[in-house]
Batch of 2 targets.
Target 1
Amino acid sequence: MTHLTRLIAVLATAMAFAVPATAQDGPLRIEITEGVIEPLPFAIPNFVPESGGAGELAANITRVLSEDLTGTGLFREIPQSAHIGSVTSFSSPVQYADWKAINAQALITGGVTVQGDRVTVKFRLYDVFSGQEMGDGLQFSGTTAGWRRMAHKVADTVYSRITGEGPYFDSRVVYVSETGPKDDRRKRLAIMDYDGANTQYLTDSSSIVLAPRFSPTGDRVLYTSYETGFPKIYVLDVASVGRRTLTTPEGTMSFAPRFAPNGQTVVYSLSQGGNTDIYAMDINSGQSVQLTTAPSIETAPSFSPDGSQIVFESDRSGSQQLYVMPAGGGEPRRISFGQGRYGTPVWSPRGDLIAFTKQSKGRFHIGVMRTDGSEERLLTASFLDEGPTWSPNGRVIMFTRETQGEQGSASLYSVDISGRNLKKVRTEGAASDPSWSPLQN
Amino acid sequence: MHTGHIISGAGHLALFAWAFIGSFSLPPDDAIQVTDVALVSPEEFAALTPPVDQAPGADTAVAELPAPEAADTPPEATPQTDSTPEQAPPETAAAPAPEAAPEKPDLTTPQADVSDTTSTITAPSEDVAVVVPETPDEAPRDIPRVAPRPVVRPDRDVAVGESPQAPTAPSDTAEEVQPAEEEKAPEEATTRIVTEADDKGQGLPKSSKRPPASRPVKTAAVEPDPKPANTPEPKPAPAQTETATPRPEQKEAINDALSRALAGAADAAPDTPPAGPSGPPLTSGEKEALRVAVSACWNTGSLSTDALRTTVVVTVEMSQDGKPLAETIRMLTSSGGTGTAARQAFEAARRAIIRCGAQGFGLPVDKYDHWREIEMTFNPEKMRIK
């Protein structure tokens, strides 16, 4: 029987390859359904300094641009040592064969000009194998002190042209900077570029601060402080570091604030009489409206990008789950049904997903689900992951990861929504509670 | 007589066993020699018995014996097995016509992408970007508590140049460059995304030890761990192995397959000639090889989530050496995404065709009419983020 089976298999294979395909009418048609997932290799020769003294700045801009792209996990830089061709002038024609030979699929060239304290950066992007330019060349100008932003701007343009995703490199992150031992942790608000550069501090560490949240325009930050002994919500102007308190009834605790997309309304949790509900406040008039009235704990509200709905966490069902309700209040609809506890939901700026923290089987996860609760995917798993925040383009999630033990500390991590490219974000010391700003103007 | 039957029967059984169990790959000539043995009369067979030790040589000799012309000694009734040898299966051993060897890839170095035309790049206008004058940093207002380091007002003077720069054109003075051998594909390629959540961890807390940002007051005890879901999911029944004894209908199918195979694969051509190009069309294997070749270069790793929902149909014309003509690659249709997503998806498809076709796809030249133009549908359904 073995021989017979083998014989049949051989014959079947032979016939499959020998029998001509069905009659062909028109061009040959094939369907490709599986490809490969790998970073796209690109080449980026140092930008050409086009004025005296621009050499170092050109090299620095080139490095930041490259780090932005490779940091996404979607691109891979071909080392400059492997380059065959060189770019000595921004206007030189591109010798595509030189870049094909090293398998560079994209080529970025640029030039940098410095005049006084002003710098101009221009660049071009080429599709090497197609032998054509991808979009038009662009240039950015600004102060020399803002050269990193210009590098981020160029990287954003390149990233968007190749991937089709929105930009996010020219953005910032506000977070809680932590110092000291675990039992005496000192906390203060800090702000930095998305990649950890240009860190500055917004508050001192005299009292505990929690959960900073950017406004839709990125010029203000909401946060919770225990300065008075009770948690209170403050609004801080990022440029001037001036702040004020959101007025709430005496003897109550207010926390978990977040801006509405209009930038004028703030939703938050208010705890009084042992019950916690969600309220909305007009930030100018100070008028508040109660949105939930359940005897359970409702907190961590987050608006949908169009401002029509709010997702929040509640334990009204007996365990901590996620619910969605109209922005003006109303009957909430439960969207999480998986095993474990769900919390800190955040609506994606694209509106298609909700990120959350999940605790299940003794592990903490950062996950995403559709806004109706379907297609839940867990992206991370560790001793303690929590507090997700979305990049401006809705492609990357940053969160807090804390390590175990007495020496454990909190750090910021980021992960692509595919679950790939999990990496630690560079910060000055321990950090937690990140909030990603919108794209800067 | 009885002995003759026994001998003849044993001989035939041995013949069948050899033909069936033994290798089918023996040359057909050997089978014909066996057939001759069956025609030997018992007397002749008996006469040949003494030198049985010389069996191999004897077989040959017997086969060449003259026919029993001595009619005066009519042979005893011989077993009615004359037709048996004709049922011998050696013809099944006739291997199907070997697949035409694939065309040797054209190893000639491709021409450098240098055109005859050139143009001068227009330098971008110096004043294209709108520069916002620097404003002095505002002093922090008088507030109860001042940060140790005030934050500098964000730089707002970064602006995008409005006028696009002239596209770069190749130089006509550029020398033709012969590209070197391509770099190997990166090793990190994968077709499956494994997230950290797929790993199993140990020694984990039951609740967050961090101050709860959304719940600053611990109003309730830590919830017990959810009941561990130790109930294993029912395992699917093991699939039937292919070596299972075939049922009667399966046997019939096998016999049919054998019959078709015996009839010769070459005869399996379609009854009606194709309406398109003349000559034999590409076999399934040849089309599969092309599909696999393009798949190897179709990189979806840098595509947006929208582009991964977009199916594009791309057409390309081919040169006779199996290489795609890059300038003929165009998108016919797209579905499932926006125009921007379709453009990203098309560019990824175009890169795949050009990269993996640079050395030729190894298509059979004699069937060039059939693959002169190819329509490729790039469907990323299996590559989506799930």
Target 2
Amino acid sequence: MDVQYINPFIVAAQVVFKTMLGIDVDMGKPQLKNTCVTSGEVTGIMGLAGDKKGTVAISFRETGAKYVYKTLIGDECETVNQDVVDAVGEITNIISGQARKEFEKKGINLNAAIPMVIVGKQVEMNFITKLPIISLPFYFAVNNGQGDEKEVIYIDFSFE
Amino acid sequence: MNVLIVDDFSTMRKIIKNVLKQIGIESVIEAENGKMALELLKKEQIDLIISDWIMPEMTGIDFLKACKSEEHTKKIPFIMVTAEAQKGNIMEAIKSGVDNYIVKPFTPEKLQTAIEKAKERVGK
């Protein structure tokens, strides 16, 4: 896959997490995924179509999803309930919007569908492309950076 | 300041409410679409409108046009929130009299600046 398709997702993740959540994310090593299953436990998935087509999945661990909810909404949440699912859907929507803006700068116009959220680990997903899926891990500190605790978010996408 | 947030998605209303809280604005009224918002505007004293673009029943742009054509609502600062960064959309909102717009994602500081500029534009 052309590197020009990867950068918009990296920029989008960094910009959205910084502006909406005040979080600096560090990108880990990109990997190729051979199986089409969710990487984390709460996953927002979105189809993109237009000049190109593809699918993007933004996957959180349960703790990460609850942290996102707490930071976005300002309320605590004990379990992954509908509110947490909706917050993950919205952050997926915003990251996708930001990525589309980055693609637009390269002259590639894309439209997005409404995000769908899957709860569960290793759940099979339907990607519209046949190409390999690239998985980008992003790490961030929780608890205001106190302690060594790190969360991870995976952005998995396939694009052609 | 009494703010009317118009968005069909309750999570986005909660997010905006949380951002407003961070800049010291706690008095908020919510509506799911433009139609509901127009009804609320007849009954409530509103000092600022923050509206989404894509909503069922009545879209943000139709709601904006309705607000700007009514005597009792046209002076209320109107901010459009959109994830669609396409210039065409923004231009349409500007032509329809939007006082400011903000593209998601945004920081509390960016929203505060948008509010101040919108208030200035209507002379409040």
